[in-house]
Amino acid sequence: MKKKEFKNIAPVLYELKSLDKGFSTPVDYINSFDSNFNETKILARFNKTNSFNTPSSYFTTIEDTVIDRIDQENNSVPNGYFDTLESNVFEKLNKEPKVIELNTSKRKWIASVAIAASLALLFTLQIFTSSSNLDFSSLSSTEIENWISEGEMEVNSYEVATLYEDLNPDNYDIYDSYNEDDLLDYLDNVNIESLILTD
Known about the structure:
Blueprint: H1 3-9, H2 11-18, H3 33-36, H4 39-44, H5 58-72, H6 81-93, H7 104-128, H8 141-149, H9 157-163, H10 174-177, H11 180-189
Helix pairs in contact: 1-2
């Protein structure tokens, strides 16, 4: 590749090539790395004095030192505490709980008021409910369609056919209301397997 082509393709790299600064390694650095790498040379750079040391006989007296410090902080268990612990726990568990009994006359009064209130509520709700009879004819067709499509009522084609036995399909000319393009669009968008009647 010629310099002009390189300059046209990558102008930034071309400018960096002209700079004298950059990273370089000494001559024969990689080949002599193993011989120059020495663990003792690296360890010689660190301070040879040991900054972590323990006092003499530290590990032999540590247990006594910790126990003395606990005793000084008054974190001790009373004498005989564990001997009487089990009996104290069972004594508290076996105590009878305090129960406040309701007066029997209050109970009878509360029961009679609850019965009276429920009867009053029952009669009030019967008065304010509408007396009009709800039947199938009072529902709109969209409500019925939603009810069937949401699975609240299952209807198959045989049940629909029994409802409309007196209708004669020969009286209805469906060819006048639909053209061939509408029929092809419908067949393209419908799942034909769902139209198969199985019972």
